[in-house]
């Protein structure tokens, strides 16, 4: 697997020793470098692999370095290209800059390797969206839309405080990711980020998970145990799906927020805790309050700062960046050399509704990458349901009986494949949820998705 920071660079020079020396100098500082000894070889490589920067000599025997420059920029308009020119050939350097070269280095009999390294480093740093940090608004958070920028600004200004943050958004919009960003941008970052899903646990277990318990406090409590609040001491506790917290637990949570202390289940001994609380929900919490399912006083305590994460369909301008990032990420994970995506495929992705938001997009890109032979992703490579677009939602729901009848006569494997496909469609690509519905682990589901080539 390629490390995120490991940039891939193409060095083009017909003088073999020069090319090799430059490549070696760059490799020594950690870059992954390939060489091409002619323009033709360079063009060939640019068509096959994705590079983060190109260093090319202007004077090549077959075609000029300008051709390499053009090809590089056609592959990726933001790709930084550094041209090497002979001493005193300023015009050719100027021409190269006009064609979009990022910068040039004058070289005499030999190239100044320290200067080369420095120029490449700067190029990678300065290229828009070429380094991991610059594609990110916050740690791990990709986006450039005004909505996402606003959220990033808010996170940065509230993170240093200990204010409770409430994150509201549809499923897959990045609530947990933003919760982590709040933690990572806070002075608490060296301590634990502890997450707990309030919907997944029964009341008794939820309380013992949150507050811990003393030995013998309930049947089965063979020893005493720390709760998540204690683990998160000095750090951040993320309460996911907080709307589903049972009423009695809500009361206890409110107490903690008011007094900064907890009681383990079965104990009267208060324990001081210093925990920053971040809560998330995909429900309309205000409605839960109105309808009496959520305590109003707790609601006000939680929503000191409220972040609304928009559904992806409301910030489609982030799709390009997200797609780019996910292609890169899954290309590394699954060992596929993917150069890019056609404008048509990108259009298809941009116009899809994404009911499952960023998670659905991420899953769709992973599936596409897994089945792609490498090279450029085309519209036809995208998952069927994405290609079909909104038609998915317009299909009449099939009756359960009809489905069972239709299943008889097929192999168990085929039935399994169909069941998984339908479940994934119903959960809008949310694998966690699909696995839950199917009653299997996420890993098992993942293996089956690959095994059946589902996407
Ligand atoms: N802006 C973003 N940039 C990069 N990745 C993102 C972004 N938003 C979401 N993701 C990714 O999408 C996936 C879903 O995000 P996350 O789990 O945070 O969503 P969620 O709102 O908590 O969903 P749910 O309500 O279903 O739990 C994760 O893999 C996350 O890393
Ligand atoms: Mg979540």
Give structural notes:
The chain is an alpha/beta fold and 455 residues long. It has 4 domains: 8-130, Rossmann fold, CATH 3.40.50; 137-310, Rossmann fold (3-Layer(aba) Sandwich), CATH 3.40.50.300; 313-392, Helicase, Ruva Protein, domain 3; 396-451, Homeodomain-like (Arc Repressor Mutant, subunit A). 47% of the residues lie in helices and 16% in strands. The protein contains 22 helices and 18 strands. Strands 2-1-3-4-5 form a 5-stranded parallel β-sheet, sandwiched between helices. Strands 9-12-15-8-16 form a 5-stranded parallel β-sheet. A two-stranded antiparallel sheet has the order 6-7. Helix 4 (90-98) links the parallel strand 4 (81-86) and strand 5 (103-107). Mean pLDDT is 86; it is low at 391-402. The protein binds adenosine-5'-triphosphate and magnesium ion. Magnesium ion is lined by residues 175-176, 240. Residues 175-176, 240 line the site of magnesium ion.
Primary descriptors:
18 strands; Rossmann fold; single chain; elongated; five-stranded parallel beta sheet; 22 helices; alpha/beta; 4 domains; Helicase, Ruva Protein, domain 3; binds magnesium ion; binds adenosine-5'-triphosphate; 455 residues
- CATH superfamily grouping of the largest domain: P-loop containing nucleotide triphosphate hydrolases
* Unreliable residue stretches: 391-402
Question: What's the domain count?
Answer: 4
Bound molecules: adenosine-5'-triphosphate, magnesium ion
Arithmetic mean of pLDDT:
86
- In the CATH hierarchy, the architecture of the largest domain is 3-Layer(aba) Sandwich
- Rg is 27 Å
Q: What form results from the Cα inertia axes?
A: elongated
CATH class of the largest domain: Alpha Beta
With strands numbered from the N-terminus, the spatial order across the biggest sheet is: 2-1-3-4-5
Helix count equals 22
Helical percent range?
A: 40-55%
Termini, distance in Å?
A: 23 Å
DSSP strand tally: 18
CATH topology label of the largest domain? Rossmann fold
* Portion in beta strands: 15-25%
